[in-house]
Amino acid sequence: MSSSKTQPVQASNSRLSNFFNQFPAIPYLAKWILITALLGVLIGSASAFFLFSLQWATQLREQNLWLIALLPIGGLLIGLLYHYYGKDIEGGNNLLIDTIHQPAQKIPFKMTVFIYLGTIATHLFGGSAGREGTALQMAGGIADQLTKPLRLSDEDRRTLIIAAVAAGFGAVFGTPLAGAIFAMEFFFVGKLRYNSIFPAFAAAILANQVTHLWHAEHTVYHIPWVPPTTLLNLGYAVIAGIIFGICAAAFSKTLRFVGQFFKARIKYPPFRPLVGGIVLALIIYSMGTTQYIGLGIPTIVASFEQQMPVYAFAIKIALTVITLAAGFKGGEVTPLFFIGATLGSALAAILPLPIALLAGMGFVAVFAGATNTPLACTLMALELFGSQCAVYVAVACIVAYFLSGHTGIYGRQIIGEAKNPRWSKDQNKLINDL
C-alpha cells in the first residue's frame, strides 16, 4: 500500500522536475521576486525616510542661517566618527563597486547609519553635496545583511548589490528605469551586466513604489518646447555635449586633485573637514547667499525657466569639491545636476536652443560624463523631462561620455571597454590608476 501511494508522488515530483528543467528561468524569477520585494520594502522605506530628513535639514538651515557657522564643528564630528569607527567603510560607493567586482567581507550595516548621519549633518550645516552617494551606500549596507541569512553565493551577492544600487538610485530620484540601468552600468566603463537585469529592474521599480507610498516627493522639471531635430540643431547639441564633457572631466579631476591635496597637507583625517568647513563657511558668508549650498534644487528648477549667469556652475563646482574632498559626506550627482543645468542654461547665450532644453541636456550630460553612465542618464532624462527631448539628450550624453575620457568620480570603476581605440592600453585598469 505504501509503495502504491508513493508512486503518484514520485511521478508528480518527476513531472515538476522536468518542467523546471525545461523552463529554468522560473525558479530564478521566483527567487529574485521574493528577494527584490524585500529589498523594495526596506530600501524604499529607507529612501523615503532619508528624503524627509534632507527636507527637514534644509528647511531648518534656511530658517537658522547661523547654523552655517557650525560647519567646521560638524565636519570635525564627521571626521572623528569615520576615523575612529568607520575606517572599513570609508570607500563609500567605491566599496560597493569593489564588492560587485570581487565579493569579500560583508558590508557592515553601520555604513547605512554613518552615511545617513554624515550626510544630514553636511546639509544641516551648509555643505554642498548631494544624495545619490548616500542612497547607494544606505541601500548596499541594508542589502548585504541578507547575504548570510539567504545563503547567497558570490554570484548572487553581486546581483544583490546591483539590485540594491538600482533600488536606492531609483527611489531617491524617482527614476526606477534609469536606476536599474545605472546599477548595471556604473561599475564597468563600457559594459553592462545583463545577467542582473531582472533583479535590477524589479528592485528599482518596487523601491520607487514604496517610496511613493510613503508620500516622499520628487522634484518635477519641465521642458515646455523642443525644436525639430534638424541637422543644424543636432550640431548645436554636439557642441553642447562637448562643453558638458569637458566640464565633467574638469569636475572629476579637480575633485581628485583637491582630495589628494587635503590628504597631503593635513595628516590627521578629522582635521580635514574641520579646515574645509572653515573655508566653506567663510565663502558662504562672503557671498551672502545660500543658493549654491546643499542640494540647490531651487536654482536647478530656475535654470529651466531663465538664463543663468555663466559663473553659477563654477561656484557650485568649487563649493562641492571643497565639501567632498575635505571629507564631508553626501553624493556628487545632485551637485552635478546643478552644475550641468546652470551651465546648459548659460549656454543659451551662444547656442540657439531653448533654455529649458539646454538645462535638461546639461542636467544629465555632465552626470553622464562624470559617472560614465550615458545610457542611464539618457533614460533618466526621458523619465524626468519626457520623451520629446530624447534625441537631444542622447546626443549630449553620448558626446559628453566620450569627451570626458577615462576619468570619473568613481575611482574603482574598471575600464571594461576603452572609449577610443587610442586608449586601448587602459583596458581592464581602474580609473584611479590612470
Give a short synopsis of this structure.
The protein is mainly alpha-helical and 434 residues long. It contains 17 helices and two strands.
Tell me about this structure:
By secondary structure, this protein is an all-alpha fold. It has helices at residues 2-22, 25-63, 71-85, 93-101, 110-125, 132-143, 154-173, 176-185, 197-213, 231-265, 271-287, 297-303, 312-326, 333-347, 355-371, 374-385, 390-403; strands at 188-189, 414-415. The chain is globular. The mean pLDDT is 93.
Secondary-structure blueprint:
Layout: H1 2-22, H2 25-63, H3 71-85, H4 93-101, H5 110-125, H6 132-143, H7 154-173, H8 176-185, E1 188-189, H9 197-213, H10 231-265, H11 271-287, H12 297-303, H13 312-326, H14 333-347, H15 355-371, H16 374-385, H17 390-403, E2 414-415
Parallel strand pairs: 1-2
Helix pairs in contact: 2-5, 2-6, 2-7, 2-9, 3-5, 3-11, 4-7, 5-6, 6-7, 7-8, 7-9, 8-9, 8-16, 10-13, 10-14, 10-15, 10-17, 11-13, 12-14, 13-14, 14-15, 15-16, 15-17, 16-17
Question: How is the main sheet built?
Answer: 2 strands, parallel
Cα(first) to Cα(last) distance is 74 Å
Instruction: Give the class from helix and strand content and strand pairing.
Output: mainly alpha
- Which stretches are low in confidence, meaning pLDDT under 50 for 5 or more residues running? none
- Strand portion: under 5%
Provide a count of the helices.
Answer: 17
What would the principal axes of the Cα set say about the shape?
globular
Radius of gyration: 23 Å
Q: Indicate the mean pLDDT.
A: 93
What strand order characterises the main sheet? Answer: 1-2
- Strand segment count: 2
Percent of residues in helices: 55-70%
What's the order of the H and E elements? HHHHHHHHEHHHHHHHHHE
